[in-house]
Design brief:
The structure is a single chain. The protein is about 65% helix and about 0% strand. The protein has one domain. Strands 1-2 form a two-stranded antiparallel sheet. A hairpin with a 2-residue loop joins strand 1 and strand 2. It contains 15 helices and two strands. By secondary structure, it is mainly α.
């Protein structure tokens, strides 16, 4: 029974809980690690992250050379992310969820797989780039009215970053803090520049800004490592950070989320940069 003050009962403060009877605070760190995992896994393939597609084409990679460069990086960062799980997520036995049947709409599913295959073929220059574009137009019919319910606000934020890239390149401020001038155009220098610049303008615009300074496969590999590492750190460092934060914060308070997000994300940024430098030194041929 709670104590009384002025005739009113004082109830003990209890932590907010979810439908699974788990305090919400215990979901913060798993959410942060989920965002980090999305950044890491997306680095593995040319289509996993937008900056990968750009650097895959601009750097003259083939499918083989791209996977050879990215596989050890992605595996190393996956190991670093998984290593944080025992410390971040308390062990807890959960009841098995009730069995449910998932219905698949075959026509939209087949259209999605076909579009993905055409996009991959276009990236690897097996079909012209206009083929997946034209195929996407009739595929919109499968969405119907749902196409108008899609939230494109983050796409607008992302597009605004691209608009400012050229203006930033020409600004006096950028000439003063140009990371290439500070760290050079070696593969390691471009890795550091890409990671640091991503913290302020996101990793895709950072790739666009720094690509003219890269020359040769090793330099582009360093830049690729840098902008992928730069996905960790600040909320604007990658689109995955913004999407994950928006999904989590839609129904929960944000103060503790941001403190834990920044702590974990910057720790992973340091690990990603260290891994990048090691791979560039011992694995990447000049």
């Amino acid at each position: 029974m709670g104590s009384h003050a002025g005739g009113r009962a004082i109830r003990p403060i209890m932590p907010r809980r979810t439908a699974l009877d788990i305090p919400i605070i215990r979901l913060v760190l798993p959410a942060v690690l989920e965002i980090a995992a999305a950044n890491t896994i997306g680095c593995l393939t040319p289509t996993g992250n937008p900056q990968n597609i750009f650097l895959f084409v601009r750097g003259g990679f083939t499918a083989g050379t791209f996977f050879a460069a990215q596989a050890p990086w992605a595996l190393g960062m996956a190991a670093a992310t998984c290593a944080a799980i025992p410390f971040a997520v308390p062990a807890r036995r959960l009841a098995a969820p009730p069995e449910s049947r998932v219905s698949v709409e075959r026509a939209p599913a087949a259209a999605s797989v076909t579009l993905l295959a055409l996009e991959l073929l276009a990236i690897f220059s097996a079909v012209p780039v206009w083929v997946p574009f034209l195929a996407a137009l009739p595929a919109l019919l499968f969405l119907g009215r749902d196409a108008f319910r899609t939230d494109f606000s983050l796409v607008g934020v992302f597009a605004a970053l691209f608009v400012g890239v050229e203006g930033l390149r020409r600004s006096p401020l950028f000439s003063l803090v140009d990371p290439v001038r500070l760290f050079g155009t070696s593969p390691a220098g471009l890795a550091i520049s890409g990671a640091l610049l991503s913290q302020g303008v996101s990793n895709v615009p950072a790739a666009l800004l720094l690509a003219p300074a890269a020359a040769g496969r090793a330099a582009f590999t360093g830049l690729l490592y840098g902008v992928n590492a730069g996905g960790c750190g600040t909320p604007v460092a990658s689109l995955a950070n913004l999407i994950g934060a928006r999904l989590y914060l839609g129904a929960r308070p944000g103060g503790r989320f941001w403190r834990l997000f920044l702590a974990v994300s910057f720790a992973l940024l340091v690990a990603a940069l260290a891994l990048s430098i090691l791979l560039l030194k011992y694995s990447v041929q000049p």
